[in-house]
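U., I forgot to send this yesterday:
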Amino acid sequence: MAAAKELHYGQPHQTDDMINVIGSVLEGGGQILRISAALAGLLGKAINITEIRAKRSKPGLKAQHLAGIELVQALTQAKLTGGFKGSSEITLQPGALCSGTQFTADPGTAGSICLIMQIAVPVAAFAPGPCLLSLRGGTNAEMAPQIDYLEKVFLPVASRMGLQLSMNIQTRGYFPKGGGRVQVATTPVDGCLQAIDLTDFGDITEIRIRAFTAGTIPQHVGRRMATAATKVGGGHWSRVLIFSDDAQLFVFCAGLLL
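Result:
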């Protein structure tokens, strides 16, 4: 395997048949890893990623990153080396894309399900047939998209581009236990994704609030958060939902989504 050379702005450098990516460029976090691995699986290109998450306080692969990489490995029948927690370098050699219902990812932590989707959905969307991904972890995690954002914002926009994707939130998961369960079903994209125009922002017609509490935090905390939020927004509030997740008894979590 050829030694990796320094890259600028996260652009991959290809030496012979191996694409080498330095994971420490720019932000030096997990996003370079997810995008690079997803594109490698989608295009069938062997890739070597070094200095993984080098700019984080605890560098290397965490459980969530490893779960996502292993999911791409299964979707592409790939050979993976360096796939262990704490690893600072991996090599992924994809094979043929495959489809089916046997794909699962479970980091065993509250690692973000949404970030696992980031690495797996682009690959599954171009599989030869429908895919069903069974994902576990955190649905509402810090420093990651909320599952509600994917459901209410990403999915409608993606459908306009021709991405046929459905999501079933079976159980929500929060820090530190995780335990969330989400099923994601994809149908192969017909040809290629379609360009869309999002330059016309339009007028705000309504704003919705979802306040949630879980475990030991009482529901009145959610009410107080929602009440405080309605004091701003120019009278556009059309729906306020306060949700208490009684199924997650051993966590300490609350949040507000607009």
